[in-house]
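Standup notes
- DV: blocked on the single-chain target, sequence here:
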Amino acid sequence: MSQSAIVKNIISEQVVQVALLRQMDCKNCDNCGGCPQKPGTELLALAANTVGARVGDRVEVESVAGSSIGVAVVVYVLPCVGLMLGYFLGQALTLGELGSIGMGFLGVLAGFVPAVLLNRAVTRRKGPEFVVLSRLG
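- DV (later): unblocked, structure below
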């Protein structure tokens, strides 16, 4: 899915920093400076500059196909799996209901550790998250 953005900074010849525009808020009126619907904070991202865009250009960008959805699933699923494994381990060890709940809580904590580490490793990546498809005028 593509969306509109404004080039804010040129990082290198092949990479630019863009401010993403919300599709619902922006109706392509080119009045971003005085628009009351413009969000208060900009959402900045890196984009591969395939069209030679310059600072101030309004461009169309598309998300790079990658493992972001897979990483998101892992980050959310690991604590849930830890919860279930901890609870069932507590049941298998005949710790009772309260002991099983406590083991489930420990399982959630154990699931958060690799999830947080994986999330940090992915966010430290410096590669562009988007690709500039075209200039919009």
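- Follow-up: The CA atoms of residues 90 and 100 lie 4 Å apart.
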